[in-house]
Structure formats: C-alpha cells, structure tokens
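Reading is simple: each integer encodes one residue's backbone shape. The lines below illustrate:
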Amino acid sequence: MIENIGPIHQESLGAYFRNMDALIMPTLLESFSGSYLEAMHFGLPILTSDLDFAHEVCGESVIYFDPWNVETIKDAILKLKSNPKLAQDLIVGGKMQLQSKFQSWGDITKCLLKNLHEIAVLK
C-alpha cells in the first residue's frame, strides 16, 4: 500500500518513519532534501528519481528510477519488495552514506581553526 501523507509536522516525523517500509521519492526537482538523510537515519530503503541531486545525497545506497516513467517506478518497487536482501543492503548502505555526510565536532573545529589561521595569515 502506498499512501501520500502530504506535509507533516516535525514532531510527528519520527513516528511516521518508524511505521514505513521504504521511502519513495519520485521528485523532479530538489535543491536538497533532508528526507533522504532522515530515511537513512531510521533505517529505511530508499527508491528515488535518477537525477543529479539524488545521486549527490544518496550515492549508491538507493534504487533509482526514471521519475517520468511510471513503469520504472513500478519496477523499482517490485524489485525491492521481492528481494529482502537488497532491502537490507540498501539499509546498511544508507547508514554508511549518512555517516559520510557528517563530521565530528572535533573535525569541524579543526577545519574552522585552520580556516581562521589562513585568514589571519593573509591579513
């Protein structure tokens, strides 16, 4: 069953993700979507548009489809539904992809100090 729930309040987000089997995003245009990262955090396989912005965020940890072709969307859904190992591999890949998108506070601090030092030396 696929249900388009529309906009939801931030405080309800976790409950929705915990009750989903997968995230399907047949979007045509995004500048950035936190939905991918949220789905990875909650351990969901992702099916999404085969477009540059999605590749930038998701890497190889999702099933891509042509968002202008309903057959490819159907095929992606059936591929995931019929292959529990693939679903598990996507979940693991998503967790790894999520970890690669964030730095530790120590790394952030080192980068900031390096940049501040470079600015101070240039002045």
About this structure: The two ends are 61 Å apart (CA to CA). The chain has one domain: 10-122.
